[in-house]
Write a structure and sequence with these properties.
This protein folds into 2 domains: 2-102, Rossmann fold, CATH 3.40.50; 111-224, Rossmann fold (3-Layer(aba) Sandwich). It is built from 11 helices and 7 strands. The chain has helices at 7-11, 14-26, 42-46, 50-64, 74-88, 97-106, 137-146, 168-171, 173-188, 200-208, 217-224; strands at residues 2-4, 68-71, 93-96, 120-124, 148-149, 194-197, 213-216. The strands form 2 sheets. It has a 4-stranded parallel sheet with strand order 5-4-6-7, with helices on both faces. The longest helix is centred in the last third of the chain and has 16 residues, at 173-188. It is globular and about 50 Å long.
């Protein structure tokens, strides 16, 4: 298995990639990472730089082909599993960390700490994992193994965006901030103890604009499993 960390987890939010690697080691999964990992091209595609994105795709083709690719980032997952096929006819075997964690739980390769559930968690659906990839259940199954889920009013295909994707946070930071604050207020209404999400972009923007603690799913699992 190749763990494709993605730009945000690799460069800005190392706690996410650290948590993923720690879980892989606990589950005795052999994996590798790329020292010269390139961007998957997602941001270039979302901001209209298709030709530049195709250049990134070509750089990644030989590195990622012929092996299972694990991603932390919902944007990487959508791009590697869908856009590479559409733009370059490249069929990669891609799995998102939420899907792998669900498998590891089913196989008893990771187990919760020996204590009763005490935390209340609300889950934020990332756009690229949810609406774009229709993966709503795996993250919820993982969370419910460790904690009680308190759902927000708008979830799954109706979930509100975090405001960080598609280049919005870079080009329109005030808009990104207001969108994240709205989502944070929606989370507060659940009386949950924290927000858990499955995308580094979402974690970054929500954590900067919410009064609740925000964790990536991998960080949340790492905090709650027997080591």
């Amino acid at each position: 298995m190749l763990y494709f960390r993605g730009c945000t987890a690799r460069e800005r939010m190392n706690s996410i990639s650290d948590a993923v690697e720690a879980i892989l080691k606990i589950a005795n999964i052999d994996y590798e990472i790329l020292d010269n990992e390139e961007c998957c091209g997602s941001v270039l595609l979302r901001t209209g730089f298709v030709d530049e994105a195709k250049e990134e795709i070509q750089k990644n083709t030989d590195k990622l082909n012929h092996q299972k690719v694990l991603t932390s980032c919902a944007g990487c997952y959508k791009t590697l599993s869908q856009d590479y096929k559409e733009l370059a006819n490249i069929n990669l075997d891609v799995i998102h960390i939420s899907q792998l964690l669900e498998q590891l739980i089913a196989e008893n390769k990771i187990t919760p700490k020996k204590s009763e559930k005490s935390k209340k968690v609300t889950y934020h659906d990332p756009c690229h994992l949810g609406r774009h990839s229709e993966e709503y259940d795996a993250p919820r199954h993982v969370i419910s193994y460790f904690a009680d889920i308190e759902e927000m009013e708008n979830i799954k295909e109706n979930a509100k965006c975090c405001g960080s994707g598609g280049g919005v946070k870079s080009a329109y930071p005030e808009i990104a901030k207001s969108i994240a604050k709205f989502r944070g207020e929606e989370a507060n209404k659940t009386n949950a103890d924290m927000i858990v999400t499955s995308c580094p972009f979402c974690k970054l923007n929500l954590s900067e604009n919410s009064s609740l603690d925000v964790l990536d799913l991998s960080e949340f699992v790492m905090e709650n499993i027997e080591k």
